[in-house]
């Protein structure tokens, strides 16, 4: 199958490209600029650039998006333009019968997100839901938990931030007492979910599936895992708890039942250990 991947240069996008290639697919990566071999330039904010970029593909994994909650708060209109507008542009450019896998987020919660990131992604889900039967698309929406592991260079995200503190001997700031629970899922497991969803997509049918480990992990558990992986203590400074949910855990059973997908690598020690191994190798330790 010839598959286009929007956001192919991002953390999850790179892993999805690798997993698709390993599964035997021909991949066309779509990036905004500086395309490497096998990639095309396509800007989600310029819909006219998408038609040529998507020509001749059998499926699309749509990951191009604004993905930071804080960034969405400072630029809500830009977030909506990219996350919803970009999805509409992809939908309009796709031929009938194409398979589509949309990267969404567990941050949509109960359908009432309290930030532009979640709201714009939920709106993108609705657009895919409504377009699928009308355009004969085989559409699968994957609501991703907190994706982590090797390849994540974003210092604002939990695992890279903690490993950075361990490496540099600096303090890691914890909101509250560190008991807030999240669901961390290994990036390689997530990439396999995209491959499975692409294969399971059926023309004219839409479905939404949560993708997570199902394992509740507190922030202090991630810190402890980083200390085990690095062999170094992580200095912690606490500040007032942030206004955010105390616990977010995703049920992986629906994806297992419908896709045959299992998060095999998503134990916290594996996630942090793989991320640290890559970082240590880059530092030539």
TrEMBL record:
Instruction: Tell me the ranges covered by the NAD-dependent epimerase/dehydratase domain, including all copies.
Output: 3-206
Signal peptide positions on this chain: none
Pfam families assigned to the protein according to its UniProt record, in alphabetical order: Epimerase (PF01370)
| InterPro entries linked | Epimerase_deHydtase, NAD(P)-bd_dom_sf
Sections of the chain in a coiled coil: none
Q: Which PANTHER family match?
A: DTDP-D-GLUCOSE 4,6-DEHYDRATASE-RELATED (PTHR43000)
The family annotation for this protein states:
Belongs to the NAD(P)-dependent epimerase/dehydratase family.
The protein's name:
UDP-glucose 4-epimerase
Organism field: Actinomycetospora cinnamomea
């Amino acid at each position: 199958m010839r598959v286009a991947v929007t956001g192919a240069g991002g953390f999850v996008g790179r892993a999805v490209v690798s997993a698709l290639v390993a599964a035997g697919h021909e991949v066309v990566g779509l990036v905004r600029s500086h395309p490497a071999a096998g990639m095309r330039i396509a800007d989600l904010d310029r819909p006219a650039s998408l038609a040529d970029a998507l020509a001749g593909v059998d499926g699309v994994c749509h990951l191009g998006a604004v993905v930071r909650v804080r960034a969405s708060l400072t630029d809500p209109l830009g977030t909506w333009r990219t996350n919803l507008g970009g999805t509409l542009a992809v939908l309009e450019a796709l031929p009938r019968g194409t398979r589509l896998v949309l990267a969404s987020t567990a941050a949509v919660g109960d359908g009432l997100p309290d930030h532009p990131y979640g709201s714009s992604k939920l709106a993108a889900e609705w657009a895919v839901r409504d377009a699928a039967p009308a355009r004969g698309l085989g559409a699968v929406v994957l609501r991703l938990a907190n994706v982590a592991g090797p390849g994540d260079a974003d210092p604002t995200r939990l695992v890279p931030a903690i490993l950075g503190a361990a490496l540099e001997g600096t303090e890691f700031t914890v909101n509250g007492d560190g008991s807030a629970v999240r669901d961390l899922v290994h990036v390689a497991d997530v990439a396999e979910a995209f491959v499975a969803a692409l294969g399971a997509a059926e023309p004219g049918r839409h479905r939404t599936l949560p993708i997570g480990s199902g394992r509740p992990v507190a922030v202090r558990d991630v810190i402890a895992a980083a200390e085990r992986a690095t062999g170094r203590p992580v200095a912690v400074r606490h500040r007032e708890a942030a206004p955010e949910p105390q616990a977010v855990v995703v049920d992986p059973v629906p994806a297992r039942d419908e896709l045959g997908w299992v998060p095999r690598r998503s134990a916290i020690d594996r996630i942090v250990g793989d991320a640290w191994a890559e970082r240590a190798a880059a530092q030539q330790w």
